[in-house]
Specification:
- The protein is mainly alpha-helical and 217 residues long.
- The chain has two domains: 115 residues, no CATH class; 50 residues, no CATH class.
- The chain contains seven helices and two strands; from the N terminus they run ααααββααα.
- A two-stranded antiparallel sheet has the order 1-2.
- Helix 6 packs across helix 7.
- The longest helix has 31 residues.
- 2% of the residues are buried.
- It is found in: Membrane.
- It is a multi-pass membrane protein.
- Belongs to the anoctamin family.
- GO terms for molecular function: chloride channel activity.
Amino acid sequence: FITIFVAAFPLAPLFALLNNWFEIRLDAHKLVCHTRRPAPDRANNIGVWFPILTFIAHIAVISNVSISHSIHIRLHTQNAIPLRNGSNRQDYDQSLTGYVNYTLATAPAHTMNNTCRYRDWRDGSGAHTPFYWKLQFVRFAFIVVFEHLVFSVCRLIDLLVPDIPVEVEHKIKRERYLARQALTDLTVTTDGVADEDPDVVDGNDDELLNVIDHDHT
């Protein structure tokens, strides 16, 4: 929830960090001091939570870009896009003379007795003008381009930063080799003959590590 709507309240991540900092330590204290230690289970990754978190991250990018664009348009640059996209029209010149009049629509004559002007891009019948749809297209294009830019940067970081550091990967390969070698030695001890080379022992690596852990215990 915080990730998706962080643009609406930027201090929310700080409060979430403080809350999690206290909550994790309180839960750890209860787990260590007040409950029986649970039996650990071996797991290669976080399982189904990885695609769920990835989906939430994508939704968060789209949501935050849309919220930021909406807030920025309303508070700072409400006239920036209409001004740049309408600067070549004949309704006002480059000195912006007549721009305010250009941004105000006239209410249909049959709806009111007096002339009423309001801020919108509509014609005399109350329908949206072509410039209104052009403006919506430009705003939507900005959101799409900015969102793809963020996704591209995230993808680039994902490609440059390895999931497993090189040193850790080497240690994992060494542990797997030692596990295969220990399993072969165990086979030699029980059968008296080593039929397979340690480097080509077949089988699941997790099962081999479980056998070695059981043998040590």
